[in-house]
Each structure stands twice: as C-alpha cells, then as structure tokens.
C-alpha cells in the first residue's frame, strides 16, 4: 500500500523533504483523554497491550488527535522478557515489576529464545490491525528494547536509579551476562523481523538505561548487540535511541542504522560534527519545555529546529512525553515544526 505521507521514511533515508517530519515518543498514552477513557474501562495496562484491537485503537489515536507524521505501535519493551519466560507486572504509579528475577546460571538457562508468533503474536496482530486502520495515512513504527536495557530489568526486577544488581553482574559474571544478552538479542531480532513482516515501516531500538554504564561496559555489553540487531534488519530504517549515551556517538556513527535519536542533553551540532551527513538525527526537545506557555513552546521548538538544520532531521522530544503534559502544548510543538520547517525549506526564514 502506498503511503499518503512518507515524510518520515524519506527523512530516515536521507532524502530531501519539503518539511521536517514530527512524532513523539509515548504519544499514544496518557496525554490524550480518549486514551485515559479507554484505559479506565480495563483491568490495567497489560490488558490494553495484549488486546490487538484496543492496542491498535490507542496507536491510531494520536494520528487523529495530534496529526503526527507517524504512528508507533502501542506496546512495551518488557513483552520480550515475558516472551522469554519472565513475567512482569505493571504496578500503577510505580512502574514495571518482575516477581521473579535472573539471579544465576540456572535462571538464564531456563530463559527461552521466544518464537514471535507463538509468544508475541498479540503484538504482531496489533500491527496488522493498525495497518488496516491507518490505511496508508502515515508510517507505522515498531520497536523493542535494546538487550542491555532488557537485561537490566530482568536482573534488577524493577526500575532503579542505579541498576546496581544488573551492573554488578557485568563485573562479577560477565560470561553469564553475555549468555543472557545473546538470548535476548536472538529473541529481539526474530521479534523485530516479524514486526516488519506484519507491516512495521520503521524500527526503533530503545536503550533506556544506556547512560548508567561506563563507556567500556557500554561497548562490551550493549553496542555490539545493537549492531547485531541493525545488521539483521537491512531492509527497513532503524533508529537507535540510547538515553544518556553521549559518549557512544562515535560508535553509533558506524552502526548500520539510519537514524540516531538524541536525548535533550545532547547538542545536535556536536553530534552532527561526529557522525557527518551519513545519519539522520532525531529529537530532541526537552519534554519539560512543553510545560511552558504556548509562546515558550513555540520559541523552544524553533531554537531546536535551527540547531538541527533543515534536512536529515526527524523532530521529536529528547524522551517520552510526560503524562501530565497539556495536549494543547503538544499541538503547538507539532504545528510549529510543520510551519517553521516548511518556511525554512522555502527560504522564507
């Protein structure tokens, strides 16, 4: 099916675009009242993720409400460890919780390399339902967590400021860490390939806890596995978003991915100087900038666009949009990107 709006795909491939495409991480979620209304009728987050028709409805909501240039499938990175045999719970106001964790070699041995259709079929069906619902309006982004971030949750059991249990494993039992990372990577590759087969047009790899590792550990326990994932998806644009991993930008420049996502602490011009023109950059407005007045949001957005320049940029936030953000300010951000970047392309600014 031909896409009516392929701006995101063209920008990811490095082609000239008439304006900068824009979408937001976590755009399908609590900022939208229609999402909250639907979620309120259900038993919880997991019911929504695991019901393809409902996940598809939530995925499409921001396309209707915000007029973004892409949809991202409504799911969670933690479906992967669950598919491997480690069940998670989503505790309201606390986040993810694993009742059991990976503590030793026996625990790693009992983790399976998941079969996408058997163990993650509900996500693949949600992608298929979403594609039918979108009817070619915008591209659909599929995603997964980077292996290090998934390991961090499987070992720690919950979110953490330090992930000291997971990081301890890298120092005390590096071979065991690699064994688990290999299983996670194999599962993730098969899962993402299945997402593409189901209809995902782009893939994003989220390394949410990249920034808590020292550079030598990030190279050994994360980048090498992200590289394997990128190499396994040659036919689709891949975005690598590694929060806090500013030190890894030179290595990211060598990855076979199309786009590098920047958090709000990274300077686009500095990153561009390192990676050259070979990559598209995505980001990176501070999510808290959306708490300002509409005029302040507009100003911050324009400043961001000027730093990235008119080409090879996908506008986004430097992290997911926060749930208490005013949707009207999100609309100001999106409209400013569209209007300013169009005028910039036409040489009127």
Automatic annotation (TrEMBL):
Q: Where does substrate bind?
A: 26-30, 76, 153, 208, 319
Tell me which residues are marked as the site Transition state stabilizer.
Answer: 76
- The answer to keyword Cytoplasm applying to this record is yes
Q: Where in the cell is it found?
A: Cytoplasm, Cytosol
Q: Which Pfam families match?
A: URO-D
Highest taxon above the source species: Bacteria
Q: What are the record keywords, sorted?
A: Cytoplasm, Decarboxylase, Lyase, Porphyrin biosynthesis
**A GO cellular-component term linked to this record:** cytosol
For this protein, the Enzyme Commission number is 4.1.1.37
PROSITE patterns assigned to the protein according to its UniProt record, in alphabetical order = UROD_1, UROD_2
How does this chain assemble? Homodimer.
Protein name per Swiss-Prot or TrEMBL:
Uroporphyrinogen decarboxylase
Organism of origin: Hymenobacter lutimineralis
What gene does this protein come from? hemE
């Amino acid at each position: 099916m031909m896409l009516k709006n392929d701006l995101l795909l063209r920008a990811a491939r490095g082609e000239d675009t008439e304006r900068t495409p824009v979408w937001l991480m976590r755009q399908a979620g609590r900022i939208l009242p229609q999402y909250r209304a639907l979620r309120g009728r259900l038993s919880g987050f997991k019911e929504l993720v695991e019901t393809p028709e409902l996940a598809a409805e939530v995925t499409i909501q921001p396309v209707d409400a915000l007029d973004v240039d892409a949809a991202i499938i409504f799911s969670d990175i933690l479906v992967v460890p669950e598919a491997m045999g480690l069940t998670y719970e989503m505790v309201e106001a606390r986040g993810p919780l694993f009742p059991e964790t990976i503590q030793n070699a026996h625990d790693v041995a009992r983790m399976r390399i998941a079969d996408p259709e058997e163990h993650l079929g509900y996500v693949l069906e949600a992608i298929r339902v979403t594609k039918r619902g979108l009817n070619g309006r915008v591209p659909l982004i599929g995603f997964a967590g980077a292996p290090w971030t998934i390991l961090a949750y499987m070992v720690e059991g919950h979110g953490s400021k330090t992930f000291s249990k997971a990081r301890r494993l890298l120092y005390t039992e590096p071979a065991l860490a690699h064994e688990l990372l290999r299983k996670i990577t194999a599962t993730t590759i098969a899962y993402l390939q299945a997402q593409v087969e189901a209809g995902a047009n782009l893939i994003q790899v989220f390394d949410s806890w990249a920034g808590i590792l020292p550079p030598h550990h990030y190279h050994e326990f994360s980048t090498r596995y992200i590289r394997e994932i990128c190499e396994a998806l040659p036919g689709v644009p891949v975005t690598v978003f590694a929060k806090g991993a500013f030190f890894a930008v030179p290595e990211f420049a060598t990855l076979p991915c199309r786009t590098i996502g920047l958090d709000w602490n990274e300077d686009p011009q500095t990153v561009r100087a390192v990676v050259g023109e070979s990559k598209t950059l995505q980001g990176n407005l501070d999510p808290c900038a959306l708490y300002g007045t509409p005029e302040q949001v507009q100003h911050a957005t324009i400043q961001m666009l000027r730093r990235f320049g008119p080409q090879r940029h996908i506008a986004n936030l430097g992290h997911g949009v926060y749930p208490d953000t005013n949707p009207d300010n999100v609309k100001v951000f999106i409209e400013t990107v569209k209007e300013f970047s169009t005028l910039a392309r036409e040489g009127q600014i």
